[in-house]
């Protein structure tokens, strides 16, 4: 149908995990979002 989808995370996701936090968690979550969007053929944007 020609629709374009962009997954937008309004935070960087650097808190909220039982074991990880900070920069490493933010990088992990950004990578997860990017991979999910890729699998759906969409785009991902993570705001910091």
From TrEMBL:
<feature type="compositionally biased region" description="Basic and acidic residues">
    <location>
        <begin position="29"/>
        <end position="42"/>
    </location>
</feature>
<feature type="region of interest" description="Disordered">
    <location>
        <begin position="26"/>
        <end position="48"/>
    </location>
</feature>
<protein>
    <submittedName>
        <fullName>Uncharacterized protein</fullName>
    </submittedName>
</protein>
<dbReference type="InterPro" id="IPR024078">
    <property type="entry name" value="LmbE-like_dom_sf"/>
</dbReference>
């Amino acid at each position: 149908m020609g629709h374009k989808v962009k997954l937008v995370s309004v935070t960087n996701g650097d808190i909220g995990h039982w074991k990880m936090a900070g920069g490493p968690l933010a990088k992990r979550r950004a990578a997860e979002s990017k991979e999910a969007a890729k699998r759906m053929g969409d785009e991902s944007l993570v705001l910091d």
